[in-house]
Amino acid sequence: MEYYGTISMGNPRQNFSVIFDTGSSNTWLPSVNCPKSNSACQNHRKYNSSRSSSYIPDGRNFTLRYGSGRVVGYLSKDTMHVAGAELPSLTFGESLFLQHFAFSSVKFDGLVGLGLGVLSWSNTTPFLELLCTKRLVEKCVFSVYIRRDPREIVFGGFDETKFEGKLHYVPVSQWRTWSLEIAKTTVASKQIGGRSNAILDTGTSLVLVPQQTYHNLLNTLSARQQNGYFVVTCRSGSLPNINILIGDTVFPLTPSNYLMEIILDRKPVCVLAIAPINRGFWVLGDIFLRLYYTVFDATEKRIGLAKAK
Predict the structure, then answer these.
(1) Is 286 among the residues known to form the active site?
(2) Structural domains in the chain?
């Protein structure tokens, strides 16, 4: 499932649906110049620089690689309009190629990166940094709520009506990314993972964990293999929580959160909404972020978490 919002680019405004992605810093939109042979691009709204009086050419080529596919194009500058704010001369990518299997059927047109600036293209000021340096927000903070409608991103602060109790803040563990440190992970009384960094990524649907942690989890949940899937019982009441210790607070994933029902051999079975990656860190995607209201504080280089209402 994707969570996306609306922005406009240029003057007069051209409207687009975008994913706000905390896992990257760059912004891109499909270009009117993309070839007709690229159906993934043709299926979406396209930016037309010739229709904007505020367009500034850049021309540098770019390639971006995501877990789901590749985006190729060239850089341009224009004024972005978002949530009542205007960001003049934002550098963004006009995409000429969108990988078909990744982007053909999605509802969003492009992507706005909310990552820290060190991940951006060289000699550019990415969205979040430009928003803050122009002082268009009181604080260089944004917060994400995706538990239920109306889902929202708040720029400049957070909404206390969307979470329970107080925010638990931890420092950003790697200055290049919106990441924090997991002290350990347990299932029932068994530790399945030790100290590890975790990236909070609104652009990823699942929770991704290191290979060894994943295998430990499968063993603890008595998962069995069926048609290439690791299947577990659908009786969620008989399964334990996955307890993630961040700072001095445990943030549990309950079975109703980490199970997905699919059809195998014409019968419903349950698999994990958790997948392995060949890396030494976690990626906490929407499965986690739906449960926990998240505040991204670029000024203090910290992340706040609280149980979402």
Answers:
(1) no
(2) 4-136 (2.40.70.10), 160-307 (2.40.70.10)
Residue 21 appears among annotated catalytic residues:
yes
Cα–Cα distance for residue pair 128/133, rounded to 1 Å:
9
Which of helix, strand or coil describes residue 241?
A: coil
Task: Record the pTM.
Answer: 0.94
Catalytic-labelled residue, pool 58, 78, 149, 201: 201
> What pLDDT, on the 0 to 100 scale, is given for residue 79?
98
Report which DSSP code applies to 84.
Answer: T
Q: Which of 21, 78, 286, 297 is catalytic?
A: 21
Q: According to the model, what pLDDT value does residue 1 have?
A: 54
Q: Which amino acid is at 276?
A: P
pLDDT, residue 42, reads 92
Helix, strand or coil for residue 279? Answer: coil
**Closest by CA position to 271, among listed 227, 237, 304:** 227
